[in-house]
Amino acid sequence: MNRIMEWHIGVITQTARTLLLHAMAKWPTVITEEFWPYAICHACTFCISSICSDTGHSPHHMFTGEEAPWRMEHFRVFGSPDVFVLYKHLQDSDSLPKWKACSWLGIFFRHSLAHSGNIPMVYNPMMTNISPQFHVVFQD
Prior knowledge:
This protein has helices spanning 2-26, 36-49, 59-64, 88-91, and strands at 83-86, 103-111, 120-124, 129-132, 136-138. Helices cover 35% and strands 18% of the residues. It has one domain (2-138).
């Protein structure tokens, strides 16, 4: 049984390492090794939501008996710098001047574990914080 668990830990570690290295290559000035825990969390969420070919169910479903709250169509590339978040003033139904930008550019890290399965956690490079964002557009 120990061999099986070590294999799963190795798969998640390799997946997280690949995710983090890819994100660091896309945005080297912003993404550093400090985001390793987020890469591990994203890799774990992806692995437990993936459907196994032999059983037809995800590991989350086999363990809990319920469908995973994360759908595969909601997954995005870890560290993707193509997330546009609507400014807080516009979220509160206020208005901005006509030629002012309506959104800020963020980086997707993972899905929120405290909210619905499709709420992304977005890193704001200007404020240097990661928070759940509800009004986002992904540029695919």
